[in-house]
Amino acid sequence: LRLRLADYRNEVFGCLFLDNRHRIIAVRELFQGTIDGASVYPRVVVQQAMEVNANEEDHAVDNTGFSDLFALWSNIAVGSR
Fold first, then answer.
1. DSSP annotation of 80
2. What distance in Å separates the CA atoms of residue 81 and residue 78, rounded to the nearest whole number?
3. CB under 8 Å to 2, separation ≥6 — which residues?
4. Alpha helices (runs of H) in 1-81, residue ranges in sequence order
5. Distance between CA 65 and CA 78 in Å, rounded?
6. Bridge partners of 43?
7. Which end of the chain is more exposed for a tag (fewer CB within 10 A), N or C?
8. What is the pLDDT of residues 14-70, one digit of tens each?
């Protein structure tokens, strides 16, 4: 990860998506910003998690981690209103 991000001059927000056994199933760079900050939109993060989950369900038998993640994000969104 450090090698992948070493040459970036601006801030980047990315996600490591894990399965329920904590194995990396996807790495996505979601937002790029200025030299000292990046705007992050939780809706896009959740959409990407759901997309990764949909792709992973085609290959995995027991994958329930992202439904839990979506429930967590839903609770955070409701609580922040």
1. T
2. 6
3. none
4. 2-5, 42-57, 65-79
5. 20
6. none
7. C
8. 888 888 888 888 888 888 888 788 888 888 888 998 888 877 665 554 445 555 555
Residue 65 CB neighbour total at 10 angstroms: 19
Provide CB contacts within 8 A for 38, sequence distance 6+. 10, 11, 12, 13, 31, 32
Token duo for residue 62: 């027991």
Distance (Å, whole) CA 65 – CA 17? 10
Instruction: Report the DSSP beta bridge partners of residue 24.
Output: 18
- For residue 28, which of 6, 10, 4 has the smallest C-alpha distance? 4
Token pair for residue 65?
């981690």
Task: Count other Cβ atoms within 10 Å, centred on residue 17.
Answer: 21
